[in-house]
From TrEMBL:
It is found in: Membrane. This is TerC family protein. It is a multi-pass membrane protein. Pfam families: TerC (PF03741). It comes from the Bacteria. It comes from Variovorax rhizosphaerae.
Length: 226
């Protein structure tokens, strides 16, 4: 337990916690969007299981993230998957309105959380691993501490979404933004992005606009069919 007396250990732990506070915002949005379609009594379970599993997944990803990011077309596939998730979450919001709404399942919500976090965490874990400087105890401890941060953020977002429905659309747009970023940052597009830095923001904005446009269109169709 000598490492507990090390200044470097505590400084490293503080860096990891701070990084997770900064990087956990989009994850909290995904968890909140997926969990809000559940009955009230299952929302807490989805937030806790989803957050805990997401952090464990992030620890595993830390070991292989650098190699995964070097694989061509992997981030393109992951970005497209995020765009799909964003559209689905926005479309499903139509079912949450009214007294006759249909609830989703706990398993489906947790699955959505894990898939989205898997894609969104590839870049994030590299920053966390760098802060840990190869210290696995520090890494695991720092990520474990981030669990209540994600849970608190998700719970807060659910309450905000219930009060301000426009946040649901903004949350879906955020997922689309990250999806666009993920696609253009693929290893196969490295040279193109290096020569055209503006593509990073253009792709992100396009992803956000696409998710909102398609999701809203599907909402209108579903509403017209009822």
């Amino acid at each position: 337990m000598e490492f507990l007396q090390s200044t470097d250990f505590w400084l490293g732990l503080m860096k990891i916690v701070w990084i997770n506070i900064i990087l956990s915002g989009d994850n909290a949005v995904v968890i909140a969007l997926a969990a809000r379609s559940l009955p009230l009594e299952q929302q807490k379970k989805a937030v806790m299981f989803g957050s805990g599993a997401a952090v464990v997944l992030r620890i595993v990803l830390t070991v292989v993230a650098a190699k995964l990011l070097a694989l061509p077309f992997l981030q393109i596939a992951g970005g497209l998957l995020l765009l799909y998730i964003g559209v689905q979450l926005l479309r499903d919001d139509e079912e949450d309105e009214g007294q006759g709404k249909e609830y989703g399942s706990l398993a489906a919500a947790i699955r959505t959380i894990l898939i989205a976090d898997l894609v969104m965490s590839l870049d994030n874990v590299i920053a966390v691993a760098a802060a840990a400087s190869g210290d696995m105890v520090l890494l695991i401890l720092g990520l474990a501490i981030s669990i209540p941060l994600v849970i608190f953020g998700s719970t807060l977002m659910i309450k905000v979404m219930e009060r301000f429905p426009i946040i649901v659309m903004l949350g879906a747009a955020l997922i689309g933004w990250v999806g666009g970023e993920t696609i253009v940052e693929d290893a196969s597009l490295h040279d193109v992005l290096a020569a055209n830095a503006w593509l990073h923001y253009a792709a992100a904005a396009a992803g956000a606009a696409l998710v909102v446009a398609v999701g809203r269109s599907m909402q209108k169709r579903a509403h017209a069919a009822t």
